[in-house]
Amino acid sequence: MEMKKFVAGLSVSVMAMGALAACGGGSDSDSSSSESGSKKPSKIVVWEDTDKAETTKAAAKAFEKKEGVKVEVKEVKMTDQQKKVALDGPAGKGPDIMLLPHDQIGTVVDQGLIAELKDGEKALEPFIDTAKSAVTFDGKVYGYPKAIETPILLFNKDELKEAPASMDDLYKLSTEKKKDGKYGFLALWDNFYFAHGPIGGYGGYVFKDNGGKLDPADIGLNNKGAVEGMDYIGKWYKEGLFPKGLIGGGGGQAMDQLFGDKKAAAVMNGPWAVAGYKDKGINLGASELPKLPNGEPIKTFVGVKTYAISAYSENAEWAEKFLASLTGKDNAKAMFEKYNEIPPVTELQEDAAIKDNEVAAAVFAQAKNGVPMPNIAEMGQVWEPMAAALQLVATNKQDAQKSADDAVKQIKQQIEANNQ
């Protein structure tokens, strides 16, 4: 997934209104019923991401054979699904099941587009804690986790035989490489998606998590830890360990080029970058990110692709039953093997297919240290102020405390204005 997909883009402000319309299989049903008494629908409809539907279709066929319910799988680009459900749902043309990035959950709940799972706590039992938290909004569960993504350490094994144990080790390597005009480690730390790692590791946070409920009134991006994290970020730029070309919109391309040209030993990037690096001939290694100088892990943002039930579906019980099967161990493993989608299923951590894949194992390990990207709508007000603050720090134009204070002030003002 490209980095831009992680940036919370507030979608259409359409509030779905009116009576629930029949969705997917419509209102037709046979006389068979589930254990709880709900009638079997003629079919349920699943919107799967484009070019990633083969394993879902196989799971659908198995479900139909076992349960006698047809599952129709349609390919719709994940980033388009929210808008389409807002339009198609009220007309009865939408799906029973849609796919979305977890950080959009709060927005689509507010728009009335997805439904709470009936037995959410039980549904989430197979998944790792980070994924459980990601699909929980306001204390309620709204989806089944499909796959996780988070930045990890990617390194050139011809430069580093093994992953460094600490960021101090990478810092020392970087100072040595600088003498030869090269780089030990590169990261896009003027981009808040990546910068949250050290900021969170030092004790900063976006919104306070109160038992599964995020409090947008409690912002921890200018607390003592957040400022320490921004100071640490600034150190890498001030000492010339990151090139000036890494700052701004072209930073990602510059970093990829330096790593691809073997002028950098390691980078902080996600699994989406792996194929491109391998195509450039890098002898690629992967691991969780090293610990910060304070001994704490880098707390990266974790993204979770999530299956959710449309609020317009009349077949919610059967849709949930299919999703429990689709995201179960066997189908989740099949998705990983076919599409390299890393499943957040606890039991698969020890599966050879995951364990023996350096990137997948690294994502699993890093996800345990990470935090889910906030899934409330207020997150949309955070990106730009924090980007501005980080660029001031990276260019040494303003100190970390002032930059953080200004950013939090702006975030609060924007949230207040947006809520009026």
Average the pLDDT over all residues and give the rounded result.
Answer: 91
Number of strands: 17
Q: Can you tell me the number of structural domains?
A: 2
User: How much helix, percentage-wise, in residues?
Assistant: 25-40%
Instruction: Assign the CATH superfamily of the largest domain.
Output: Periplasmic binding protein-like II
Strand content: 15-25%
Low-confidence stretches: 1-36
Number of helical regions? 16
Structural summary, described in words:
The protein is of the alpha+beta class. The chain folds into 2 domains: 3-149 and 302-372, Periplasmic binding protein-like II (D-Maltodextrin-Binding Protein, domain 2, 3-Layer(aba) Sandwich); 152-301 and 376-419, Periplasmic binding protein-like II (D-Maltodextrin-Binding Protein, domain 2). Helix content is 39%, strand content 20%. The protein is built from 16 helices and 17 strands. Strands 5, 6, 9, 16 and 17 form a 5-stranded mixed sheet that branches. A 4-stranded mixed sheet has the order 11-14-10-15. A two-stranded antiparallel sheet has the order 1-2.
